[in-house]
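Hi support team,

I'm filing this because I wasn't sure whether my run with EPZ finished correctly. The job status page said complete, but I'd like someone to confirm that the output block is well-formed before I use it downstream. Pasting the exact inputs I used:
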Amino acid sequence: MDKFSIEGPSRIRGEVEISGSKNSSLPILAATLLFNKPVVIKNLPRVKDINTMINLLRSLGSKIILSKDRRIAKIHNKTKLKTFASYSLVKTMRGSILVLGPLISKYYKSKISLPGGCLIGARPINYHLDSLKKLGMSYVLKDGYIIAKSKGKLKGTTIKFPKLTVGATENSIIAACLAKGTTILKNCAIEPEIKDLTNFLNSAGAKISWIGRTCKIVGINTLNPTEYSVMADRIEAGTFCVAATLAKGNLKISNFDPKIINTEMGLLKKFGAKIKVHKEKIFIKGPEKIRFIKKIKTKEYPGVATDLQSQIMVLMCKANGKGSITENIFENRFMHVAELRRLGAKIDVKNNQAHIYGNTKFIGAELMSSDLRASVSLVLAAMVSKGKSIINRIYHLDRGYENIEHKLKKIGVKIKRIKQ
Ligand code: EPZ
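And here is everything the job wrote out:
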């Protein structure tokens, strides 16, 4: 298993280009199961989770041709697809549950492994199943599989989500596209990745419109050929903004629409970052002294993204005072705390709240990655630690950050991958 060796502390400067969004690519790729006309998806990030989704689609019989650089997928499902998604594939990535909506909507049946939980939480899928049931899907759970079917086309209806949920909103929108009649989804999550999904579907003739958190989908018979470029990854952009703020950085971060991280940029300015915003790029300068913020809470979009919580926690370790961060989305998303303590952080955790004592002097150490976003917080902390750090099990990082060591090296971080 590969590891990273990082020599700190580094000041960072230069330019970073943001890759396509993993969390937008996954639902969009899943939605291509609805098509039997050619679809071209561009700006795919070269990360493991995308490979997993492509393998899953191919295991269903989807015909996918990838460009040499794997950023473009040409998909043409001429024949009827299979509807069985095996545990061996689904267990490696929870986002696989997103194939359930399109399969049941297009083929009226699907047998798909229940996605396992993961380190950050149990990750149940009750909201997915409840919503698809209201659209006409029936299912049984047997031997760890969801065995689902519908009597012909799904039927449009009105559904109000009991809680904001990204995946269940996406699964339901995709399923409703080919349903009979109109579906109104209320209390939807409105993350930019979900809007990217609906822009993609509308580019193929779907009839999806939004008013606030209400999404209206008028069912159609078939989707047209389309070519669509996935949005930039706002969590990668946010991560590099935190890096610049943390390491007295001076970065140009390009290839993304700064509006998608408005909230987080506002927060970083409070920490002392200076940010100049342009159409498709920002210039960000980190402060000599990082100001502290007393209370930060993660919230569904447009709140502070849970996927940036661990990165922001590193910033709070270096801030010149004490602060607390409350994780409101997942029940166990502080796996990075124990590892940050190995670098010298002083953090007390009580339930879903972490109290961070600032002015930490990080000293390099050997660390263990646990999940995708926690792992990147270890990279950030190692970057500003005195001496050498080793970060193990970086396959977690490879799931969602394209070429991270090359991007970091280019802006001055002394990082190298040790292949094992
Ligand atoms: C998506 O996960 C993202 N994954 C996550 O990113 C992200 O952290 C999360 O949204 C929140 O923004 C992808 O887009 C592939 P939810 P998802 O449904 O859809 C509970 C990353 O690092 N819930 O909004 O699973 C759930 O347990 C990943 O890229 C139910 O209880 O998130 C969680 O506590 C990590 N029942 C909360 O709701 C359900 O049926 C929010 O989950 C569904 C969710």
